[in-house]
Amino acid sequence: MSIKKCETMKRMGVSGKIMCILMLLLHKSSQQQVFNDENTLHLPENYDIGWMKMLDDNMFISHITIPGTHDSLALHGGPAAECQAWSLQHQLNAGIRYFDLRVSGDDLKVVHGPFSQRTTFFDAFNTIKNFLSIHQTETVLVRLKHSSTFPDRVISQLKSDSNSWVENEIPRIQNVRGKVVFVQKNSFSLGVSLNETDKHGDYKVGNVEKKKDKIIAHLNEAIEACRSGYVVLNYSSGTGFPFLRVDNSPKHLAKEINLWLYNNLKGAYEEKKEFCFGVIAMDFPGFDLIQMVINFNKQVGI
Predict the structure, then answer these.
(1) pLDDT score recorded for residue 11
(2) Three-class SS of residue 250?
(3) CA distances in angstroms from 144 to 1, 184, 262, 271, listed in the order given
(4) Which residue, of 45, 150, 165, 275, is most buried by count of CB atoms within 10 Å of its CB?
């Protein structure tokens, strides 16, 4: 609502002033940044990047709720391929602590399907390690998927990296602050085991309301599965099916789903119960949605 329109309403008297205040409040609430498709990141003043410092050292990483991104570096390739807008560094600064990297070839080029994402796993790995060298209270979970098989030299290199957790045992926070925790399933054999709530094909969205029902079901499943010895992984992402169009691309769907997800998570948070959802991997998340996911860790032990 414009300031000019509000001033006009104020001249209507007390009722106009009340209506103006209500409309301004509604306008402000609708401006929560739950979806982002800009490549710039604007952080609030005095924002503390190292949100994991609030976590108890003795907590297991499987006991916390973690904001993540699906196809984390899918920044190129057009509407069918793009799932994020922020760079890896921006995502880290905004609070994302789980990354989903799809790679191809011996040099581990990051891809999304046939589309190159103009970087490699080791470029991303070094960016994450540099971030962790500055923000040593944090830990970052990384999932790697290869279109074929991982070269033996890569496995050996990661096993010998002192800044990586490659054991299958769930670590406590104190053991992995400042480290990359690899999570694994199927083709990648290093790190902590994943328990995915999504079923095969759940990423295909023919009906948005049915997709929302699946997300709710998966989050409820995550509540039961958290603390079970696995890192639980949920996806809110999706893409059009059976035909991909502009109005059901990952970006278009995220614009609707992210607002809906934010409102549902906000409702759960306001119940002031100790919920654990594991990792929530999203497309095009906005800053406020990421912070809402983080908020659940403030209620642990209440």
Answers:
(1) 59
(2) helix
(3) 45, 7, 27, 35
(4) 165
Q: Which helix (H) or strand (E) holds 142?
A: strand 140-146
Q: Read off the pLDDT of residues 121-171 as tens digits, 9 standing for 90 and up.
A: 999 999 999 999 999 999 999 999 998 888 899 999 999 999 999 999 999
Rg (CA), the chain: 20
Least confident of 13-22, 34-43, 206-215: 13-22
Place of tokens 């904001």: 67
Distance CA 275, CA 300 (A): 8
Here the tokens at position 277 are 């959802």
The helix (H) or strand (E) run that includes residue 51 is none
What tokens does 82 get?
A: 């793009």
Domain, as residue range, for 20: 1-29
Q: How far apart are CA 125 and CA 120, in angstroms?
A: 9
Tokens describing residue 49: 């990047």
Specify if 85 maps to a domain: yes
Q: What is the average pLDDT score of the chain?
A: 90
